[in-house]
DNA sequence: TTAGTTGCAAAAGGTTTGCCGTTTT
DNA sequence: AAAACGGCAAACCTTTTGCAACTAA
């Protein structure tokens, strides 16, 4: 990850511009608009590199392929709609997770995922 | 999942007896002791069937292969130690996840995963 | 007897890697 | 020109599936 290439820039752009975490395939599709002959391998190699540089976060939803979002986003969690399967960012976060762990355990981080119906599908 | 076979019984046994969620590979290894020519395909087919019958739960830790545990356990979440990588069950659960979602969203379920150091590793 | 199950091998689906030509610096 | 990078295809790994043989009921 030393050089600035068209591919790398396009990949980072679509991830930063998206309002939701993207699958590798979605990154490929969206970045292909700018870089037509872009390959999936390049998407994966750049995602890996960008992640190691701390520019991306990986969002793992249980049983699904990893999605990627910009790392400069603030601490937040996700909501997945069971009907349309879209993933939404949640704005707030219940702190105080420490009390869930047995005493003697050190809680450094946590992940919360909600499931249900989004506004459109619950309507 | 209509018949009671040696394979199915062995697979269910090792998952129920284990004190932690098991990977498919671990189930194969442990159940092979009872059923020597057991195949991975059979493990997966039975896990799927047992899951659909509500006898198993799937435990997804971000970025890792799914693990399986008995479904008769009460609602709980998990803690993974970043040092020894072991997974622990948590006993309690903060309810009130509804408030995290935007209004209009219907929250049906949630998942919480804590990361840090377990008692032994935090010592 | 016969429909559900198993083992094996092959197929899938997503991610990684090797090779070699291309591009950035 | 040198080193990094990208495209393509093949390799990998985990999970699923097709199929003939087996087995529980």
From TrEMBL, chains A, B:
The keyword DNA-binding applies. SUPFAM superfamilies: Winged helix' DNA-binding domain. It is found in: Cytoplasm. Transmembrane segments: none annotated. GO terms for molecular function: DNA-binding transcription factor activity; transcription cis-regulatory region binding; zinc ion binding. Zn(2+) binds at residues 81, 84, 118, 121. Gene3D superfamilies: 3.30.1490.190, Winged helix-like DNA-binding domain superfamily/Winged helix DNA-binding domain (1.10.10.10). Its cofactor is Zn(2+); Mn(2+); Fe(2+). GO terms for biological process: negative regulation of DNA-templated transcription; regulation of secondary metabolite biosynthetic process. It comes from the Bacteria. Binds 1 zinc ion per subunit. Binds 1 Mn(2+) or Fe(2+) ion per subunit. GO terms for cellular component: cytoplasm. Fe cation binds at residues 75, 110. Keywords: Cytoplasm, DNA-binding, Iron, Metal-binding, Repressor, Transcription, Transcription regulation, Zinc. InterPro entries: FUR (IPR002481), Fur_C (IPR043135), WH-like_DNA-bd_sf (IPR036388), WH_DNA-bd_sf (IPR036390). The keyword Transcription applies. Pfam families: FUR. Its main location: cytoplasm. Homodimer. Belongs to the Fur family. This is Ferric uptake regulation protein.
């Amino acid at each position: 990850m030393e050089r600035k290439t068209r591919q790398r820039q396009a990949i980072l752009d679509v991830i930063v511009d998206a309002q939701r975490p993207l699958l590798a395939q979605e990154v490929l599709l969206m970045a292909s608009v700018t870089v037509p002959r872009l390959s999936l391998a390049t998407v994966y190699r750049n995602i890996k590199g960008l992640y190691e540089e701390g520019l991306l976060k990986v969002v793992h939803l249980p049983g699904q392929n990893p999605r990627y979002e910009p790392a400069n986003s603030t601490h937040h969690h996700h909501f997945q709609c069971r009907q349309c399967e879209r993933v939404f960012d949640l704005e707030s976060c219940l702190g105080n997770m420490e009390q869930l762990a047995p005493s003697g355990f050190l809680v450094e981080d946590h992940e919360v995922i909600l499931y249900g119906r989004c506004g459109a599908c619950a309507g």
